[in-house]
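ARCHIVE CARD
Drawer: 12
Card no.: 0347
Subject: one protein chain, sequence and derived structure
Cross-reference: see card 0346
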Amino acid sequence: MAARLADACPDATVALLEAGPARAPIFSDVPFGLALLVPFRSRYNYGYHTVPQAGLGGRRGYQPRGRGLGGSSLINAMIYTRGHAGDYDDWAAAGCAGWSYADLLPYFRRSEGNARGADAWHGGDGPLKVEDLATPHPFSLDFIAAAEQAGFASNTDFNGATQEGVGLYQVFTEHGRRCNAARAYLSAPRSNLHVVAGCHVERILFDDGRATGVEVSRGGGSERIGARAEAVLCAGAFGSPQLLMCSGIGPASHLREHGIDVVVDRPAVGENLQDHVDYTINLAVPDRSLLSSANFLPRFLGGYSRWRRGEGGACASNVCEAGGFVKTDPSLARPDVQLHFLYGIVDRHNRRPHLDRGISAHVCVLRPTSRGNVRLAHKDAGRAPLIDPRFLDTANDMHALEKGVQLLRRILAAPALARHGGRVLHGSGDETGEALRALIRRRADTIYHPVGTCRMGADADSVVDPELRLRGIENVRVADASIMPKLIGGNTEAPSAVIGEKAADLLASRTSPPRNR
């Protein structure tokens, strides 16, 4: 958004404030390195946890979030999917004019630089580079074959005419190197765009109902940065509502509990949290090509030189190469679960090591009906917020995940994968009924797609309007995944980029959609 706005308004100055580092670590550039970034809290990963989840048997879930210029695109699995076209049409039908799939397709195309080239669905020269995996693992291809044997159609383009089916994912890489959002949009310097890293925004400043700037902590001190035009929050589904509440905008009683002066009583701030709840089946498979905790680092080091030379190999892989979007009931209008397949054992976000080689198969509920919230643990915006997704809070979500697990077992039992053998690491592999539900509560967690906590809508109770303007205060907008009224059926990096693209046009007061390039 900052880059597009700076280009569209050459006479304006844009300050992009980032709490984390300006440069990505080498482990981020190497796609294979995500396995070292996701599991642990670091200067590049906030490493949040949820409050205890009743639906997960009282466990606290893990919520990794990228910290640094580029946000979670620094540490995610780089999977390029948009969600189902109907998801965005639902937004528009609920009153969010200008947010249908037809409205957003030009922005998807403008942001995308797909190595396959441009067509009616795709952009070929956009900043976010997208390409096919150069050397997909044989087990990823076996997963696709097994899914076809189980009755599911293949799909070579989840972002084209139809989403449904199984196949290899395209990824946000260029010549095997991660294309994070900062590399995509900020590589070219702009004289009117000032990037300030290591700068944590503490609160928004107001004067007579208008935002006038922000107070930040930087270099051990506190300072104020003015905003002559607008302040735009892009801190994500956890950070944006937290910053609003620390600034006095949110549920009044909650703010007073923390000694925060109420500027605007907005009960919806922090509400409507949605996330894709996910279950993983881990199988120990005796094949030397597969990953274990013990052989990951040697494989990384052994393939690094090859990756540096642009020759592909293991280091150019995101490990999560295959998957798809399928229906647990053929009568459904859209796929209701998403699959992710990994050629290694990834257990508890790769925080639980295994000496066995093996595979991991994920299934998540695409349109959960559970709704959680984000609340303050402290009035200091530098402290972690209280995150409560309320996973599996509804019978609908548990039922959908049960059916998804059973569907995934069918695929794993198909000949293309079953011929390799394998031992289920958690449970017996044939639980049903309450035994399966108990196993799900012990094992389920996020697949890293939180949204919705600054809900966009046409109704007076929404946090932002369809032009992303904060209700109740002038000169503040929100432009990130927190504005999604409902979670889309897919990974969230591409839609987040499109929100930023559209926000730049809204801020620049451009009334026509972007040119298709």
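Annotation on reverse: The chain is about 25% helix and 20% strand. The longest helix spans residues 395-412.
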